[in-house]
Amino acid sequence: MQKRVLPSNEKMARDVPTDGLPICWHIYLRRIAFVECSMKIVKLEIASVRFELEHPYVTAGYKGVGLVEKKCVIVRLHTDTGLSGVGESDSHPAFTYESPETVMAVLSHQLAPAVLGADPCNLSKIHAKMDDAIPGWAFAKGPIDVACYDAWGQSLGLPVYKLLGGALRDRVPLIWPIGGGTPDENARAIFSFDGRTRFCMVE
User: Fold this and answer.
1) Domains, the chain, ordered by start
2) pTM (predicted TM-score)
3) Are the C-beta atoms of residues 73 and 47 closer than 8 Å to each other?
């Protein structure tokens, strides 16, 4: 039985595909990534983006008043190497108990100051700093987490799915909510699908 020889060149993390490798190799590659990645967060840009929905999003909780627009919070994380990562938070108080306004406030006053100067490649310390600054608030912490992975992957020349252990699929189906209209409207919407998009029923 041929033995596997671990490579001595730390830069192999840039070149060797990780799909299908044993878990011990994934752990090894992630350790290499932490060695090679050394950056500092120097600035966070936080912005709110508003866009209109194609159709009103109606549920029983809205008492017949549909959601016609959506606001998301975007975080751009800048590092001392010139690389930057981007993350997004999609919150709504009716579903997540956090709103874009509270997410903006928590990011600006608690989380951004807490992670300045930290290494975005060390996600454990990033989350520890955020948790020390304020417990909870997952939708405010999420965009910083995603932006760190983005910057980390760029620094190694790897897509983020390789940092997470490999891809399980090569495409993700979209989900379209149905249920806010009349029975006839909902039926027409269901039969209008082309088979490439899944749908879910909304109460």
Assistant:
1) 41-153 (3.30.390.10), 171-203 (no CATH)
2) 0.74
3) yes
